[in-house]
Amino acid sequence: MPNFDEFGPEKIFEVYDPKSGMHGFLVIDNTARGPGKGGIRMTPTVDKEEVCRLARAMTLKCALADLPFGGAKGGIIADDKKISKEKKKEIVEAFSDALKPVCPSQYVSAPDMNMAEEEMRWFANKNGSMKACTGKPSDMGGIPHELGSTGIGVFYATKVAVEHMNLDMKKLKVAVEGFGNVGWFAAKWISDHGAKLIAVSDSKGVIYNKDGLDFDKLDEVKKKTGTVTNYKPGEVLASEKILDVDADVLITAAIPDLIKEKDVNRLKFKLIVEGSNIPTTPEIEEKLHKKGILVIPDFVANAGGVISSYVEYIGGTADDMFKLVEEKITKNTKIVLEEAKKKNVTPRSCAFEIAKKRVIESMKRI
Ligand code: NAD
After folding, report:
1. Band of the pLDDT at 277, cuts 50, 70, 90?
2. pTM of the entire structure?
3. Catalytic site residue from 37, 61, 73, 88
4. Does residue 109 line the site of ligand 1, with CB under 6 A?
């Protein structure tokens, strides 16, 4: 059963189309600040509860980023790897058709797992409105996530935190977990700004060199061989060993639940920036806070993607997107860190309170 509380969810749809076999969910969590925003994921295991949790995360992320959006999420039960492109198109179109009564008036879609710009093309065309979703191809006026909005935002969150801690970016040693969309841009921007990248991981393992990794060379090796672990010179470690390298900063940009309870004592980072979603739990963040490790939570650090979506939604350009990502991530990370310091609580609990207050104020106004 979904957890109904003071925010929502306002609406839960379960939709099914016997012709295509499409079976999906849309959860509109809260629309006090605007239409519910959130991507659609296509996985064989997605269920109503998962979509509800993700929709709530979007309510908080959009409120904290101070965007005129509520929170929502879509899910389609299908195995992307087992269906043809034609079948996928039929399913996405059937989902779009079923959501027409509420999209785009109460729900604005976007890509999530196994959905990308082409799927958004199908979704928008079937809906009939270009406002139905963001993350569309550029020939439809879209701003692709491939421009790096999330990873660049993660860099700005890191920069603010580094200044807040009175550290010098040029003397920092940084480890980045994951070298996909988010990790690539975060690693590039942090090394372009003078920090020393000493470890980077992907699904094959970690490449570590205490004297530093050259970003351009790393990029070339990844493109040519498919993994960062072929970079030379460097030591190859198992993926989970990213937690043991002697870096000052860890940027997470891959898997959920990377940091577990048993890892807390061995971590030596001064700062952890959550570029990925749910790399740990709030309880573990609490323990890291007590240990003196500053953690910038996911819904503060990785909001660049939804900020980019907003710019696309209002018809802005890629340049507008880069400016707004810098402005909003910088401002919101500063507010959260200053509040957290004043109250001696985790940045997450502070960010949660700020987002909650904004949603409640908007609910009072309508
Ligand atoms: P991606 O698929 O582009 O890249 C994922 C990377 O993680 C790849 O380099 C992969 O090799 C690596 N990886 C997989 N397993 C690993 C392991 N065990 N150890 C180390 N690396 C491993 O994904 P992405 O879009 O960069 O997303 C990464 C995270 O950021 C996810 O949690 C996602 O939900 C979150 N996020 C992404 C965006 C976005 O705009 N892309 C926005 C917000 C949050």
Report:
1. confident
2. 0.93
3. 73
4. no
